[in-house]
Structure formats: C-alpha cells, structure tokens
Amino acid sequence: xxxxxxxxxxxxxxxxxxxxxxxxxxxxxxxxxxxxxxxxxxxxxxxxxxxxxxxxxxxxxxxxxxxxxxxxxxxxxxxxxxxxxxxxxxxxxxxxxxxxxxxxxxxxxxxxxxxxxxxxxxxxxxxxxxxxxxxxxxxxxxxxxxxxxxxxxxxxxxxxxxxxxxxxxxxxxxxxxxxxxxxxxxxxxxxxxxxxxxxxxxxxxxxxxxxxxxxxxxxxxxxxxxxxxxxxxxxxxxxxxxxxxxxxxxxxxxxxxxxxxxxxxxxxxxxxxxxxxxxxxxxxxxxxxxxxxxxxxxxxxxxxxxxxxxxxxx
Length: 314
Hints:
CATH superfamily: Zn peptidases
Number of domains: 1
Number of helices: 8
C-alpha cells in the first residue's frame, strides 16, 4: 500500500514538473494540416485576388476567428485595401488582411505577429510540367504557424495584447503590411514588437534566423536565453546595413514596421533551391524541422512577452 502510494505520488509530482514544458507546445497535427491545405494545388499559388487567394482567406478566417478570446479590429476581421502596381500596370481592389486581437492580461501594449498568406500563383511550366507555385515554405509555413500560435494564446492568455495578422500582397511589395500600419487602430508607440514569420519549414543545416536584433540588441539577450540548446539552432544576423542582399531588414513584411520605427524580429531561413519555384511544395518541407521551428518561435514569443513586460514596469 505504501509503495503504491509513493509510486502514485511520484507520478503526480513528475507530471506537475513536466506540465509547463508540455503546455508550451503548438498543435503539431494542426500545423501540418494547415500547411498541407494552404499549399495545395486547389489554391493555385494564392496570388492576390485570385480564386485560390479567396479560398485561403476563408480558411484563415474559419480557423482564426472562431478561437476563444479573439476579437476583431476591423469589420468581420477583414481589413480591405487597394493599391496600384505600377510595374504590372494593374490596380488591385479589395485585397484583404485578416486581423484578430487577443487582449493581454497585464498591459495594453501590443505585440503584432505577422505572416503573409499570398504567393505568386500560376506561372511558367517547369521541366516536370508543373506551373503552380504552391508556396509551401513561402509562406504557407508562416501562415500555418500564425494560426497555431493564435490557437495556443487563445488558451494561454498572453501578458501583452497580441494582434495576429495574416497579410495579403507581400509578394507585390509588402502592400498588406503597409496598409495595416496606415490604418492601425493603435498608435505606433503602443506596439512594442513585430514578430514576422516568412519561410520557416525547411533548412538542411537545421538553422533558423532571428533577424532584427542589430537595431535592438536587448532583444537578442532575451532570444538567446529562450533558444539555448534548441533545435533548430537559432542564428542571428542578416540585418547589417550596407550588406546588400544579405540584409533582410526590408525583405518581408517586417520591413513596413521597420519603416515606422517599430522593433521587429523576423524568423526565417535562408533561400533554398525551391524558392519561388513550382517545387516549393508540401512534399518538400521538412516536417520535423517545421514543427521544431514553430515550437521554438513560441518559446521566444513567451520569453519576449514576459521580459518586455518587466522592462515596461521599470
């Protein structure tokens, strides 16, 4: 009897010790399910205003806006915007950002998490006869991570308010991000950080970069502690002015936040052989790497949420 009691007590204590680490995990099955659908042929590459883009928009809305705690910042969670692409000599009417808010438990300061859901659509046929640019890594991966992060924080309320923004028209010049900030419901000073995810599902070196700490070194200290002994390895760099294409500061939607002097962290991998090709498909992502990357990003956001709050209180 005593041995059985001690055995049960040990199991309970072990469970309680492990509980925080178990809780700090994204839904892996849902993450892969999101990516598989968003990069499928039926969405035909998700070019802005295409039929595939509309399907992606509906899917994101269904999975984001039904979560607990989530509130709209725009009517029906959609911020419509229009713009002219002078290079293509085309006017885009009613492109759509999908934006939701989870209110913070301790401060009304805001962290904005972004990922673009558009890609380049259908293009030139490759040697295999494929003309659909599925954009699995670029950027169905970031969008899928955004959805599971929102799901996590809907069940584990953050200290800061978090805006989750699935952005349109990144491939046409960061148009969705710029539209978001031009019509943002809070002053720029209220945004403490932008976390942008763009291409996070594959890397042969098992590395992912957190770019942007060059401009705000205090963020690097937080991220290094959060990512200690992690897999994948969190690397820093690609944010040094004057390094040309090696500088990612304006390479994705975080560039719009940088222009507004909002601190940013951009999670992404270096370009691979399938970048902007029809071969950027679900079958070519590295599932274990993708899951681990999403969980690492979650750990980093949790650390940033905690540490930035402590800094604000000083």
